Request: fold
Amino acid sequence: MEELTKMGATVTELRFALDTFYFLISGVLVMWMAAGFAMLEAGLVRSKNTTEILTKNICLYAIACTMFLLVGYNIMYVDNAEGGWLPTLSTFIGTQADGADHALESDFFFQVVFVATAMSIVSGAVAERMKLWAFLIFTVVLTGFIYPVEGFWTWGGGFVSKLGFVDFAGSGIVHMAGAAAAVAGVLLLGARKGKYGPNGQVNPIPGSNLPMATLGTFILWMGWFGFNGGSQLLVSDAENASSVAKIFVNTNSAAALGAISALIVCRILWGKADLTMILNGALAGLVAITADPLSPSLPVAALIGLLAGGLVVFSIVMLDKICFDDPVGAVSVHGVAGLFGLMLVPFSNSDATFSGQLLGAAIIFAWVFSTSFVVWLVLKKTMGIRVSEEEEYLGMDVADCGIDAYPEFVTVKGS
Reply:
């Protein structure tokens, strides 16, 4: 009997170690998505804005990690009332619960990289005309307070989680939330100079480095296996391991069909294979399947990606027609495809309801958009959020960073 007890304790410890390790490695994959966002955005902006967009991406990651450690995780998960709406406010991440499946610190690490993902979405949408320091101040508020509150309402056991709302890995909680904050910023910021003509015509502003943007997309695609697969939380038994394997395959299929769908739509509409649309098609497929990458069958997951990849092309075109300037298509990829993915969940998951999905999405969007709008507005009225016309013309690298990403293309003064 004593030997059986020891053996049981050893198995429990091994499962704890394995699940903790899996959680940490999944978090590392999601952290690697920060590099993906940085490369994607740097490739889709003009060369004169490259250093600034890279600065924003590394700084937002650092700020997100700091704010979520100080207050964000506590707001989202620690000592909150089940089904409540008002979170507690304290500091740091609490203490390890008895009988936990994994180390508390591994859960924090996995969650903090999700916060940085949400903020990265905002970075691309407001690129090429927003002041660096205004953006970083907003990052403090979003990652420390705005995101954690809606995170408590959903994943933290708050009232939205009781409405029949299901979001497995964050199509709404992470991606649509980031898009909502981006919409508020873009509305107050306005379009880039020269993007739209006086009669509403759209003037394309090509990115500077499509190889870099493509590399960024592949990095994001890879990181998404940690994003969705890690959200299963456990891998130390046959059932959970099989679920993780299915999540990986569904995630990959949705991305692949999203890219193919965007390729076909571009061919039908314009007779060309638009690389930027294909990249966004793959990302839209990933965002859509994130709402529930486990419940759908393999063919259904592929269909979700197929539909999302086509949808994002039309969304990007439509937003351009209403003069909504989003340099990287972030709102379409993460907002439109995120909502689309949420609304498909009830077709394959009986725990979700259409009314619960719609209400949950509306609450997330309303909260993040309204609070973000207020913060952006305060920043606009105080320090300003947009650079001057001259600074925008010369480029954000000169205005905010003083370092050119491609100095060989810059004329040296006095030469």
Q: What stands out?
A: Residues 411-415 have pLDDT under 50 and may be disordered. Residues 63 and 140 are 6 Å apart (CA to CA). The two ends are 86 Å apart (CA to CA). The chain has one domain: 10-409.
